[in-house]
Amino acid sequence: MAGGQRQRGRSGRPAGLRRETPATLDRTLSAVAGGFSGPDQAADDESRRLVGSAVKKTGRPARRQATKERYVARQTSRTKQSDRARREDLELGFEPDPGADWRHFEELKLSPFLEAALEEFGAHGYHGGSVRAIANRVGVTLPTLYYHHGSKQDLLVTLLMGSMHDILVRCRHALTEAGDRPEDQVAHIVECFTLYMAHRRRLAFLDGEVRNLEPENRERYIAQRNELSVMVRRIVDDGIKDGVFHTPYPAEAVRAVVSMCQAVAVWYRPQGPLSEAEVAQRYVTLALDALVLRTRGT
């Protein structure tokens, strides 16, 4: 063909290109919109109606306007539903405040997204796991997963912060139940912490992924994690003043007790010879021995 120019038909379009009719344009937009599901479906239906109506009335200029309206409709729908989505995301599957029943653990039922992320991170680690693999475990598309959780980092943060929040809430209730005696307070905190590590091993094991948190997220998580150590250290200091604990190394003793409890998540198996409660009671004894407990009046 001379000059390398493509042959054009009577309409001025290059030969071989399909003419977009209102019907084919509507089908094309419907196919694109079909790639999304969930909260945006109403916006998709409304935008397709706008496109079809405008195309039939006025042709190409209206198609551009209708496409713009379609985009606005989708964004408006997302904005209107953002508050509802945040409320729904609060239902992540973590247990509600256990109150005085801090020793009791129900079966963990996370949201499908968090359960899949927990399985993926447990099997392959944070870096080895992929968002696509998590979506496949749930049986959803990537856009659907990203609608609920903006990134793989978001999934890890939600799991870690949710777990730490649960530990702290339970430990505060245990501390309230213990009364005023430092030895009882230490016993209750160690029992509570050990029970959590045994019952929630999969979640607790994620603590090893803290190194993969982004700086701001890592700072928030470590601040909460340190709250538990500060809680125990304050009790130990009170016990030393009262003459109940006699360890010459309170800081090291507290660090040893907390680390000992955390390690339960690594080795404990419910099929083993000890129940969660039995392990917790043994760890209470070990913790009090580490603090050199002396019986009152001796």
What does this molecule look like?
With 298 residues, the chain is mostly helical. Among the domains are: 17-81, no CATH class; 152-290, Tetracycline Repressor, domain 2, CATH 1.10.357.10. The protein is built from 13 helices and no strands. The chain has helices at 22-33, 41-58, 60-89, 112-128, 131-138, 142-148, 152-178, 182-199, 201-204, 215-241, 250-262, 264-267, 276-290. Residues 13-48, 50-58 and 65-91 have low confidence and may be disordered. Residues 107-167 form the HTH tetR-type domain. This is TetR family transcriptional regulator. Residues 80-90 have a biased composition (Basic and acidic residues). Keywords: DNA-binding.
CATH topology of the domain at 152-290: Tetracycline Repressor, domain 2
Shape: elongated
Low-pLDDT segments, ≥5 res: 13-48, 50-58, 65-91
User: How many strands, what sense, and barrel or not for the largest sheet?
Assistant: none
Q: Determine the mean pLDDT.
A: 78
Per CATH, the class of the domain at 152-290 reads: Mainly Alpha
Name the structural class. mainly alpha
Number of DSSP strands? 0
Give the number of helices.
Answer: 13
How far is the N terminus from the C terminus? 108 Å
The share of residues in extended strands comes to: under 5%
Overall radius of gyration: 29 Å
Kindly report the name of the CATH homologous superfamily of the domain at 152-290.
Tetracycline Repressor, domain 2
Q: Architecture of the domain at 152-290, CATH level 2?
A: Orthogonal Bundle
> SSE string, helix = H, strand = E?
HHHHHHHHHHHHH
Helix content: 55-70%
